[in-house]
Specification:
This protein is α/β, with parallel strands linked by helices and 351 residues long. The chain is built from 12 helices and 14 strands. The N terminus is likely disordered.
């Protein structure tokens, strides 16, 4: 049975102790007739209980290989993987099979059994675990209720939308009572509105059931919507790690900047123009910063892009501003934004 985390139990208490996932110098090399390919290179990572941890990168960054190393579906070539303090690399095949029950996984393409109805899809892992069919079906009803799909119990996968199929896949994973949920591009095949509802479901599962979640994605919007911490991968290496807010406000590496600025990549840099990205939080939004600086320096600012993101439940505003051609005035504006602690950084968009 899944036991809900008590409402009196804070996330701080859940996070105390050893990390639930720990990677030490993990590498994975694939060999082929064309030579060796190092898909993951020297990754160190700690994920605390209760985290919703994002692993983000462009295609070919090594994200999916890394997540498959967590449950040893891919065995690392080097390094150690610890789950709940257990060294996964030292376990026998039988011990590993038992430990994997703590780690649920959902995928982009759902992987449902087309010949079974929704209820029997969810009951399937319970039957495999030794429950009688009648008992498994009764338990499956509860998990379908958890994902808001009780009315589809008798439907078949071909009769469901993409979002409904993913909810069935999530219910099936929950039936194994996992401590960890790995989501490998779980929303990539879904439209934006359905993606939002699935992410909200995963967030509720994390909060209500205390399940640690690892999100693998190439979309910064997914990380911003749901994750509290994030690691950026590029060509198999971890290039940046921190809170989602830190990454959004001030990405430090070129790889992270490509991801954070992806939504504004349509802005092209014109010759001799300088552009600056500024971040507004709930406090700075009430201060007329743009009005003040334009009045003080008697020079207008051109807003090229503006958007609002919700990160960890907090609104974060983002603007791309075109600075005036006068270097002295532009420099004063940059200094002003930095003094206001707006995460100001000059940006350069090129084809």
């Amino acid at each position: 049975m899944i036991v809900q985390r008590s409402e009196n139990t804070s996330l701080r208490e859940v996070n105390m102790g050893e990390p639930i996932i720990k990677l030490e110098n993990v590498s994975k090399t694939f060999s082929s007739g064309h030579g060796d390919v190092e898909a993951v290179r020297n990754i160190d990572l700690s994920i605390e209980k209760g985290d919703i941890f994002g692993i983000i990168g462009l295609s070919g960054a090594g994200k999916s290989t890394l997540v498959r190393c967590l449950n040893l579906l891919e065995r690392p070539t080097e390094g150690r993987v610890y789950i709940d303090g257990k060294d996964m690399m030292s376990l026998s095949n039988r011990e590993l099979a038992i430990k994997r029950r703590d780690i649920g996984m959902i995928f982009q393409h759902f992987n449902l059994l087309m010949q079974r109805n929704v209820l029997d899809n969810v009951a399937f892992p319970l039957e495999i675990a030794g429950h009688k069919r009648s008992e498994a079906r009764k338990m499956a009803e509860k998990y379908l209720h958890t994902v808001g799909l009780s009315e589809k119990a008798d439907a078949y996968p071909a009769q469901l939308s993409g979002g409904q199929k993913q909810r069935v896949a999530i219910a099936r994973v929950l039936a194994s009572d996992p401590k960890i949920l790995l989501c490998d591009e779980a929303t990539s095949a879904l439209d934006p509105q359905t993606t939002k509802s699935i992410l909200e479901l995963i967030k509720n599962i994390n909060h209500d059931l205390g399940i640690t979640v690892v999100i693998i994605t190439h979309e910064m919007s997914v990380v911003q919507e749901i994750c509290n911490k994030v690691a950026v991968l590029d060509h198999g290496s971890k290039v940046e790690e921190g809170t989602v807010e830190e990454l959004f406000r001030s990405p430090k590496t070129e790889e992270a900047k490509k991801l954070v600025f992806s939504e504004t990549a349509h802005i092209r840099r014109m010759h001799s123009d300088r552009q600056i990205r500024v971040i507004f939080d709930g406090k700075s939004a009430f201060e007329p910063i743009l009005g003040n600086i334009t009045l003080e320096l008697k020079t207008p600012l051109n807003i090229l892009y503006a958007n609002t993101q919700t990160i960890n439940g907090n609104a974060q505003g983002e603007m791309i501003l075109q600075l005036p051609p006068n270097k002295e005035v532009a420099d004063k504006m940059v200094e002003y934004f930095k003094e206001k602690n707006l995460g100001a950084e000059e940006v350069n968009y090129v084809d």
